[in-house]
Design a protein that fits this description.
The complex is a heterodimer of chains A (about 260) and B (about 120). Chain A is built from six helices and 16 strands. Chain A is of the alpha+beta class and about 260 residues long. In chain A, helix 2 packs across helix 3. The chains are: A alpha+beta (about 260), B mainly beta (about 120).
């Protein structure tokens, strides 16, 4: 059975017509299934766990980056208990433009237009990053200010300029022409540090701005004041240990996915 | 400055890029090409190409297959094949290499052991 789990905010009145269009499209495509509307009292973990036990064929979350990130962590945590769960792909219907940046990486259009990707059922079996106990799909970010990095317990990195640190699992970086997807297949994640100044000292990469890149298997991030943000949605405090998760996930993507 | 060929080295081909605002402390060992424009303390090792930029400050032992270096380097350098030393380079340490090119203006305080001499010593 197809399971559709609606985030709390999509029950707001302003999304009424959007949800109606999504449900019509789902019906037209013959993808009807059970709809579960989350409330403040609901547990996404228990909801997904129960539906997987009942034999769900596809779990689709309807909402934004936040519920997608949560669903990924929930399914990844349930996988060790039952290996058969890995055969259940995770689908995503992004609703609203706010906080919905991951849809683009997955090649999904917004709202009812994402339903076509569910129908096409293009499934990618992908690696996940893990930061402490929380999984992430694409990337994690933290400001450079006050941040100390230790890679594979062999060297540390200090950054003297303000900027942003990105830990990349699946994220195409046009400037570097990197292939993080290929890297993470080897058990490696990528650390990208962007700073705002000192560009003039780096003629070799002038056209891309000031940027540093490292590859790692294990990274420790310490920042006494600022949290790290996973998948643009979940903030967790340091110290944070980041690596590639043992669990992999089947996820439904659009044809224009960026990894 | 490095020659034009060096300046055209593409960041896309580098596995690791250490920018000018970055300071690395410890044993930094990689498999792919490395570009350094910042500071490193400890050791640097790669099986591929190493580029140390003009503004870099390196206090480390350096090992690579091929390298082009500038900046201030304090530590021994061991290159398997070819080493190009740029005019801005200021090296305090011994160099062990198969073949070498030294640009006018470079400062080297240390022994240079070339491939042939190394074989003769053995």
């Amino acid at each position: 059975m197809y399971i559709y789990i609606y985030d709390i905010y999509v029950s707001e009145k302003k999304y009424e017509s959007t949800i109606a269009r999504i449900e019509t499209r789902i019906t037209d495509l013959g993808l009807n299934g059970k709809i579960i509307r989350l409330s403040v009292m609901s547990s996404l973990f228990e909801t997904i766990k129960n539906e997987l036990k009942k034999g769900a064929k596809t779990i689709t979350v309807v909402g934004n980056d936040s519920i997608l990130n949560q669903a990924i962590t929930v399914i990844a945590k349930l996988l060790p208990a039952n290996g058969a769960f890995k055969n259940v792909p995770l689908g995503f219907i992004p609703v609203g433009k706010k906080n919905n940046s991951l849809a683009n990486f997955l090649g999904l259009e917004l709202e009812e237009n994402a339903c076509d990707a569910l129908s096409a059922r293009r499934i990618k079996y992908i690696n996940l990053g893990i930061a402490n106990n929380n999984h992430f799909l694409t990337h994690a970010t933290i400001p450079t200010t006050g941040t100390i990095l230790e890679i594979d317990k062999t060297y540390t990195i200090e950054i003297s300029e303000p900027g942003e640190i990105g830990i990349v699992n699946l994220l195409k970086d046009e400037a570097l022409d990197n292939n993080s997807g290929a890297k993470n297949q080897k058990g490696i994640l990528e650390l990208s540090i962007k700073t705002k100044t000192a560009k003039k000292y780096l003629p070799l990469i002038k056209e891309y701005g000031e940027r540093s890149v490292f590859s790692f298997k294990n990274l420790t991030v310490i920042n006494k004041k600022l949290p790290i943000t996973l998948d643009n949605s979940l903030e967790i405090p340091s110290p944070i240990n980041i690596s590639l998760a043992e669990e992999k996930l089947n996820i439904i993507v659009g044809k224009n996915h960026q990894f | 400055m490095f020659n034009k060929e060096t300046e055209n080295i593409n960041i896309k081909e580098a596995e690791t890029v250490i920018g000018p605002s970055i300071k690395v402390k410890g044993n930094f060992h990689g498999q792919g090409n490395i570009i350094i424009e910042g500071q490193v303390e400890g050791s640097i090792k790669t099986n591929a190409f190493l580029l140390i930029g003009n503004k870099s400050i390196i206090t480390a032992s350096v090992e690579a297959k091929n390298a082009k270096v500038g900046g201030i380097i304090t530590g021994n350098i061991k290159i398997d094949e070819y080493l190009e030393i740029g005019p801005s380079a200021n090296i305090k340490g011994d160099i062990e290499v198969k073949s070498i090119s030294i640009n006018k203006g470079a400062i080297i305080n240390g022994r240079i052991v070339m491939g042939a001499e190394k074989s003769a010593e053995k």
